[in-house]
Amino acid sequence: MGRCGSWGTKGGKGVYKPASMPFTPGMEAVGEVVAVGSGLTGRMIGDLVAYAGNPMGAYAEEQILPADKVVPVPSSIDPIVAASIMLKGMTAQFLLRRCFKVERGHTILVHAAAGGVGSLLCQWANALGATVIGTVSTNEKAAQAKEDGCHHVIMYKNEDFVSRVNDITSGKGVNVVYDSVGKDTFKGSLACLKSRGYMVSFGQSSGSPDPIPLSDLAPKSLFLTRPSMMQYNETRDELLECAGEVFANVTSGILKARVNHKYPLSRVADAHADLENRITSGSVVLLP
Fold it and tell me: CA 77 to CA 215: how far, in whole Å?
């Protein structure tokens, strides 16, 4: 079972170009091991495993994967929940725990706080003891963000988020901004940071940010990064630690996945159409 949103509407529309055609999309899945390679140890037929990232191809009934790319799924976690949270959860883990290490007393800004990754960032950062500020577009999403541990919710369509962050922090700014929006928020995000703050740009739902000169970072000695989960899980140990921490937080109740939609794999086109038309919310899971 693979989560449809891991490829998303842009992939479905052809914005991301595959190396060759035909190809099978999908970048995360949970499933049962049905065969193992010769000489392989540590994996057995019947094991429940998960993966997120490359190789692409999760939209399939069966998939051949390198053994070092999969991780065991604890028996305490529903496979559908694991499929819905694998990529988003591992993204939240490396952003909060390694890209910038959020600690008690920090103040953070999360754009798209009710989105897939944003929701988990708010839940996890709140559990770590940070003060969480989030931007959302609707009252419904504001209510969800508050439920997820967001202490201050900014309705960015009605309010200037830079001014609101300035008010909330008494002019001090935030330690880190997690920005998956890109073009529309990038410069404002930089303005929200305190001295030596971290700008973490990990997505571009509104388009690629406009280029900025390095000198724009100098007045507050800011850090700027455009990280990828793949580089943060290059080794087997990193992958196991990352996934293990996600699963542990799911088991303990710190992280809650919203599995609101399930489609049979045969209806993947309908799933993508609903995603693109904003009919869905939370996670979308394909069931083979």
Answer: 48
The whole-angstrom separation of Cα 218 and Cα 196 is 9
- Model-level pTM? 0.90
Architecture in CATH for domain 88-230: 3-Layer(aba) Sandwich (3.40)
CA dihedral 36, 40, 44, 50 (to 10 degrees): -80
> CA-to-CA distance for 165 and 191, rounded, in angstroms?
10
What does DSSP say about strands 259-264 and 2-3: parallel, antiparallel, or unpaired? unpaired
User: At which residue do the structure tokens 């998303």 appear?
Assistant: 8
Residue 28 to residues 2, 171, 186, 262, 287: CA-CA distances in angstroms?
Answer: 6, 41, 28, 15, 13
Domain limits, the chain: 88-230
DSSP secondary structure string for all residues of 64-91: ---GGG-EEPPTTS-HHHHHHHHHHHHH
Q: State pLDDT tens for residues 3-19.
A: 444 445 455 566 667 77
